[in-house]
């Protein structure tokens, strides 16, 4: 036996010497720090290991022990890999969604410009004179707000999908929610009108919407709404339109198709007149009942799913309620619930109901009738959650009985959403576990780093106003941020995370005099953790009841696995040290019982992990399907954008013939420096005045919607400057309030450049 190797007479004299030879584990060092900051020690009983205590740190680390390779570890490794892939794919999807929105905005700008030109031509045909100046955003404050909103998506991508990108890791989730709390608090503190809280399209509202698009939110929508929506869209011929004017128009169309003759009913009537029509009323009445029944089934499904709502979304609801009560203590429960409902339904649930294909809840786009029904269901749910005193669409007032019948029910649900615990203690424990890890890393792209650097520098006067602020010191050392790199050069890099100002955990625990944790406590917990590792690696040793820890240590020390041999020898010495200092007896029965309980708990944990893997595999497939959908949508938008550019660049007034029809090249049109100056196109020039008469510009359109501006000096064949422009680029600059276009030698007025292009190339 191992006991015969030790001289009992030396135990007392070796007590303190043995402790001096003991090196605490990394988690032990983190535990010392936790104890020094006041975290309670705990009992050491594994039944209580999951509560907020220093002792629980070892059990929490054991749940993800990378030094063991049993079935639990393999399952956890698979789960971690699956979560990482979901997080990465979610980030890719977010980027694709941004690209689609970007192209959509470009298409809208071109169409808007084309429509404005058509209207201008129509007005010009009736008026002698017309003001040809291009409008701008008059309110500088609004322009600044617009620019800040244009930046927010990039920042949100970095924050929610990179910095806190591990959507299933509690520490990152809780840190992100802490940031939410700060942002929401600032929003409430600065609000002056209760009615506008969280309703406008602000960075805060975008942040909240983006949060719901993370993996857990998408999982909830898929599990809760998918079946209900698919059942509805199967009924392709079910028409539940309740807008009286639309019902009236469809009624006339049906009559004409049936009879083959024009209908005698008057056309082009008002909404009110259509509503008074008895036939329309007869059609709508049963539809109202069915619509309320369908919406009621959606509502019941949502209410019964409260335990599936992701913790983070419920916690945000809780913050909205508490912040509202603090800011507006006289606010009624009715008003508070309308704010909570505005977030939960308007920004989370309803978008998925209205566009289920965008959330991959359905296989294909719903046909017109079910799509309209889903829109009406979402409108009714929103009216129920927001409880408006009026409706923008008068016909929705006919559904008020549903709102009245369910307002108590929805209020209870919205208040119940807020009944979740806080995560602050859990976050603190996660932070200490993070301290026990050898290194923390962040996977981030170059452009994300440069953009974040730029934003921090831009707002440094608010973020770090003092000279000695840590952020201010770092920004000064970094200097100006580099320019954004092209997408193909935008590589991902791994950044190690650390703080130069962080107080390091002392390697010598005796230096932490403020800690209540003794070296004996830490030695006991390290020994138990190492013993659990050995039993998990050699599960046959756990069959003996009760566990004999000395025998287990000996079996490991004499095994054929070199890593196990080292652990066996180490844990054997640690057991003897515990005897020497009087923390445990020679049988170690108390620790053996705790090891056995820990093994049982970890066994049940494996079943939970396997269940979570099964659930998340469905989520991952859905997210990948959504990625394919977005890619196809992006390609369609690219083709459509080019088509709009072509139409914008080639459409001409009636009676005019296209020039250069075969190659579609228009121009060049020549302008002198003096001419462009006179027309207000050139606002600044670096060309010496005595040479300006020798400068001229050629503007041509090689392909529709694209332009080349060339700057020439008389006597030279080649241009001294050339710039490619797209009309939608200029329109975007105009919309964002960017006034100047820099051509190195001259600076041009964006609005006047657009006017020139429209005049010469689009209105020929």
Taking strands numbered 1, 2, ... along the chain, how are they ordered across the largest sheet?
3-5-6-7
Q: How large is the radius of gyration? A: 35 Å
Q: How many individual β-strands? A: 9
User: Which percent bin holds the helix content?
Assistant: 55-70%
CATH superfamily of the domain at 169-424: GTPase Activation - p120gap, domain 1
GO molecular function: GTPase activator activity
Keywords: Coiled coil
GO biological process, one term: negative regulation of Ras protein signal transduction
Protein name: Rho GTPase activation protein
Molecular structure report:
The structure is a single chain. With 764 residues, this protein is α+β, with helices and mostly antiparallel strands. Among the domains are: 169-424, GTPase Activation - p120GAP, domain 1, CATH 1.10.506.10; 438-507, no CATH class; 510-605, no CATH class; 666-762, no CATH class. It is 59% helix and 7% strand. It has helices at 15-20, 26-36, 56-62, 71-124, 140-163, 170-190, 203-212, 215-233, 244-259, 271-276, 278-304, 311-327, 333-354, 368-386, 400-417, 424-436, 446-458, 460-463, 470-478, 519-537, 549-557, 562-580, 589-650, 673-678, 727-735, 750-762, and strands at residues 440-445, 492-497, 666-672, 682-685, 695-701, 706-713, 721-726, 740-742, 746-749. A four-stranded antiparallel sheet has the order 3-5-6-7. Strands 4-9-8 form a three-stranded antiparallel sheet. A two-stranded antiparallel ribbon has the order 1-2. The protein is globular, with a radius of gyration of 35 Å. One of its GO terms (molecular function) is GTPase activator activity.
């Amino acid at each position: 036996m191992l006991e015969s190797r030790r001289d009992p007479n030396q135990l007392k004299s070796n007590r303190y010497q043995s402790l001096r030879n003991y090196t605490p584990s990394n988690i032990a060092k983190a535990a010392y720090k936790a104890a020094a900051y006041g975290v309670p020690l705990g009992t050491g009983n594994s039944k209580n290991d999951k509560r907020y205590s220093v002792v629980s740190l070892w059990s929490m680390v054991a749940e993800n022990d990378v030094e063991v390779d049993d079935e639990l570890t393999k399952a956890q490794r698979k789960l971690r890999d699956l979560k990482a892939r979901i997080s990465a794919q979610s980030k890719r999807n977010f980027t694709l969604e941004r690209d689609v929105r970007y192209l959509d905005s470009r298409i809208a700008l071109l169409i808007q410009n084309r429509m404005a030109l058509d209207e201008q031509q129509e007005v010009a045909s009736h008026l002698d004179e017309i003001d040809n100046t291009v409008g701008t955003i008059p309110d500088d404050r609004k322009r600044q707000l617009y620019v800040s909103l244009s930046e927010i998506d990039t920042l949100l991508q970095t924050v929610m999908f990179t910095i806190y990108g591990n959507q299933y890791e509690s520490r990152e989730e809780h840190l992100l929610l802490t940031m939410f709390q700060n942002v929401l608090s600032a929003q409430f503190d600065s609000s002056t009108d209760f009615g506008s809280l969280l309703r406008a399209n602000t960075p805060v509202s975008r942040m909240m919407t983006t949060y719901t698009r993370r993996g857990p939110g998408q999982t909830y929508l898929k599990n809760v709404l998918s079946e209900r929506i698919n059942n509805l869209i199967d009924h392709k011929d079910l028409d539940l339109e309740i807008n009286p004017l639309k019902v009236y128009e469809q009624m006339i169309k049906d009559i004409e198709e049936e009879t083959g003759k024009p209908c005698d009913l008057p056309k082009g009537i008002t909404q009110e007149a259509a509503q008074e029509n008895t036939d329309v009323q007869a059609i709508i009445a049963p539809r109202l009942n069915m619509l309320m029944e369908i919406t009621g089934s959606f509502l019941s499904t949502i209410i019964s799913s409260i335990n599936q709502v992701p913790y983070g979304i419920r916690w945000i609801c809780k913050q909205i309620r508490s912040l509202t009560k603090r800011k507006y203590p006289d606010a009624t429960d009715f008003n508070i619930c309308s704010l909570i409902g505005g977030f939960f339904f308007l920004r989370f649930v309803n978008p998925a109901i209205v566009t289920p294909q965008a959330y991959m809840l359905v296989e294909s786009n719903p046909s017109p009738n079910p799509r309209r029904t889903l829109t009406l269901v979402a409108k009714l749910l929103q009216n129920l959650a927001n409880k408006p005193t009026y409706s923008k669409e008068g016909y929705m007032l006919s559904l008020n009985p549903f709102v009245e019948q369910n307002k108590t029910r929805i209020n209870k649900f919205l208040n119940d959403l807020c009944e979740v615990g806080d995560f602050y203690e859990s976050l603190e424990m996660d932070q200490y576990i993070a301290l026990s890890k050898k290194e923390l890393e962040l996977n981030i792209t170059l452009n994300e780093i440069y953009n974040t650097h730029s934003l921090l520098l831009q707002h440094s006067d608010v973020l770090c106003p003092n000279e000695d602020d840590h952020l201010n010191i770092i920004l000064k050392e970094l200097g100006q941020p580099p320019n954004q790199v092209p997408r193909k050069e935008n590589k991902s890099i791994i950044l190690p995370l650390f703080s130069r100002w962080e107080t390091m955990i002392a390697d010598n625990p005796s230096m932490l005099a403020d800690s209540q944790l003794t070296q004996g406590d830490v030695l006991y917990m390290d020994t138990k953790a190492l013993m659990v590792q050995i039993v998990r690696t050699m599960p046959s040793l756990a069959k003996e009841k009760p566990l004999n820890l000395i025998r287990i240590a000996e079996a490991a020390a004499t095994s054929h696995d070199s890593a196990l041999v080292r652990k066996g020898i180490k844990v054997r010495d640690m057991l003897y040290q515990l005897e020497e200092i009087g923390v445990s007896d020679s049988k170690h029965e108390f620790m053996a019982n705790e090891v056995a309980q820990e093994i049982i708990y970890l066994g049940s944990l494996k079943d939970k992990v396997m269940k979570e893997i099964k659930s998340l595999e469905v989520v991952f497939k859905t997210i990948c399907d959504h990625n394919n959908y977005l890619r196809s949508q992006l390609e369609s938008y690219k083709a459509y954008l080019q088509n709009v550019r072509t139409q914008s660049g080639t459409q001409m007034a009636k009676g005019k013939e296209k020039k250069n029809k075969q190659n579609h090249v228009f121009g060049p049109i020549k302008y002198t420096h003096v001419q462009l100056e006179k027309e207000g196109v050139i606002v600044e020039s670096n060309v010496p005045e005595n040479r300006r008469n020798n400068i001229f510009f050629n503007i041509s359109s090689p392909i529709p919607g694209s332009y080349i501006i060339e700057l020439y000096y008389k006597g030279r064949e080649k241009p001294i400057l050339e710039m490619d422009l797209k009309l939608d680029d200029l329109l975007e600059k105009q919309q964002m309030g960017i006034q100047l276009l820099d051509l190195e030698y001259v600076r041009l007025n964006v609005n006047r450049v657009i006017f020139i292009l429209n005049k010469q190339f689009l209105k020929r």
